[in-house]
Amino acid sequence: MTTFATRRTFALAALAAAATLTACSKKEEAPAAAPAASAAAAKPEPLKIAFAYVGPVGDGGWTFAHDNARKALEKEFGDKIVTSFVEKVPEAADAERVFNDMVGQGNKLIFGTTFGYMEPMLKVAAEHKDIKFEHATGYKTADNLRTYDSRTYEGAYLAGVIAGAMTKTNTIGVVGSIPIPEVIRNINSFTLGAQSVNPKIKTKVVWVNEWFDPPKETEAAVALINGGADVLMQNTDSAAVLKTAEEKGKRAFGWDSDMQAYGPKAHLGSAVINWAPYYIKATRDALDGKWATGKSWWGVKEGAIDLVSVADDVPAEIKAKVDQIKAGLKDGSFSIWKGPLVDNTGKEVLAKDTVADDAFLGGIKFFVKGVEGKVPGSK
Amino acid sequence: MPGERLADPSARQGRRPKGASMNEIALLIAATLSAGTVLAIAGLGLLINERAGIVNLGAEGMMLVAAIAGYATAVHSGSDVLGFVAGMAAGVVLALFFGLLVIWLNTNQYATGLALSLFGAGFSAFVGISYTQQRLSEREHWAIPGLADLPVLGKALFEHHAMVYLAMALAVALHFLLYRTRAGLVLRAVGESPDSAHALGYPVRRIRLAAVAAGGALCGLAGAYLSIIYTPLWVEGMVAGKGWIALALTTFATWRPARILLGAYLFGGVTMLQFHLQSEGIDISSHWLSMLPYLSTIAVLVLISRNPAWIKANMPASLGKPFKPGH
Asked: pTM of the entire structure?
């Protein structure tokens, strides 16, 4: 008996190791002009650019959006660059190995596209000062490591405006991934958007503690619907929540990528991220030798965030309001995070007429009034 | 600060009329049965394997390949039933391949199973690329006429997809097969002592292969149900560990069909309960709640292990051991 038990335990441990090693499948896309490469010796070497993705490119959401931008990059620069990517890189120590591999393969510009790569990237960047690193959604920088992010909360706010107008139960729900400031900010912004057209809004939140786990996302969405929410949003990476809303006759949004096709009846709009403008800028910086460390946070203004494919049954005045907010975000006349704002314990977090700065937005660890429950891990 | 939370107006709105909470319990039960079904079907399939002495760690891979095979078939044919059949067929093909390797060539069951799992994950992702944006035709609402109109119970028990009831029927049928029929006796004999079964003239290898194929069919059905009905969409890696949990369930259930069902619903129930508790805004960190299904599984396993005789009485004695006729 015991032999069996130990063997199976061993086998499972071996699997865990094997799975992490093989989970990162690698694909490389060389430019079409490969045979002519030797003849073109006079031309400068193409810049090698690598991307590390947290999910599969087929997730239809977060990673899909990054990969679309990578393809746009290839289109923009042609044979001046060579891009490659590694998908499903876990947010763990293993990521460090992947980044070291990328350096070893001669990549000069490396993008890490999830928060969890922060420490591994810092470590690898410190060892390779000549390589430039770009880290999405992080907050630590180095001389050769800069951060970039998109103001996803602007998309969440725009979605909220529609949700507030479309809910019949005045209860909206969010499937949360991991309780970090970015996600909490999105939940809050979604709620603020909804409250801007419907002050009675309550937001229910269910955390799945994963970025990508379609069955769990489905189960969380079912729980929200059972709890009375009739418009759902998610900060996870797949279309499972939208799909569940479609099944249950409720409404929902696409997130990161346009997800209309997954649930045409349920779909109210997709809050999308377009990473291409930033990737093109970063590549140009590197090609021109103008790359310098820093922090970029792009939103509607820079064309990085948008709400697309808004459903036909959304009232015209709400659509107009969405357009108005977009215009306001573009010219800077409108701010989502403007006082007076209180959290859901009644404490004032932003005084009257104060506009939140990026440092404030980057450290949000509370729920605004109207969101039920507590932020996990908060006091 | 705890004092502040009392001032939270939303915390006081928790009290609702009794009818509403009964309704929520009904919805929770419904969600539990639905969430447990995938695990139950896959677990029962693996139980057949293990009763015949074969451990197939490839469950996760078989479920993934079946999920995409079923989904693709359902997309093209517009028929869920054809999708299930395709999923089962995919499961059987992989299981037969696994069976030939471990039963005839006597490769290590654990290593071969792991390889199958990894292969399935990669292969399904590869063939599934073009299906991530595809969608299935309209789903209809399932309900048992008459019974579904019952208050509370109707919503909880009688508005499910046929597969939910099939999983229950399967557990009963399997129990009957294993303990009340000659075929079941032979199957168990092959798992307990293949040498004795061989000496009595039973074709041990072929019986084991049939058991492996049956296990593959059920894992395939579970995978297809997951992608066609439960989620319902295809994304790579969507089985997300359910195959491994189903494997653990067989030990959890001490190789008894009814307990597989119980374990599957317990796991599904605790998973759904924690999401519902969260949606009610309960004051427990979601990290702790996420651990609940696993903690409860471990707790039950510990309880079971306290009684070694219990495991001994039920565990197939030759589980995981290769059989070579004539040795």
From this structure: 0.78
Structural domain boundaries in chain B = 28-314
Tokens (6 digits) for B123: 């292969």
B276:A226 CB<8 A:
yes
Q: Which domains does chain A possess?
A: 46-151+275-301 (3.40.50.2300), 152-273+303-362 (3.40.50.2300)
**Using one digit for the tens of pLDDT, what is the confidence trace for B215-253?**
999 999 999 999 999 888 888 888 888 999 999 899 888
Residues in B closer than 8 angstroms to A223, CB to CB, are: 31, 272, 275-276, 278-279
The answer to whether residues A82 and A30 touch, using CB atoms and an 8 Å cutoff, is yes
Chain A CB contacts of B4 below 8 Å: 345-347
CATH class given for the domain over B28-314: mainly alpha
Of the candidates B43, B74, B30, B39, which has an alpha carbon nearest to the alpha carbon of residue B239? Answer: B39
Contact B237 A88 (CB under 8 A): yes
CA distance B23 to B18: 9
This complex has an ipTM of: 0.75
Please indicate whether, in this complex, the C-beta atoms of A18 and B35 are within 8 angstroms of each other.
Answer: no
What does DSSP say about strands A267-273 and A295-298: parallel, antiparallel, or unpaired? unpaired
Convert the pLDDT of each residue in B4-14 to its tens digit: 333 444 433 44
Which of A14, A173, A176 lies at the smallest CB-CB distance from B114? A14
Instruction: Give the gyration radius of chain B's Cα atoms.
Output: 21
Chain B CB contacts of A214 under 8 Å are 231, 233, 235, 238, 240
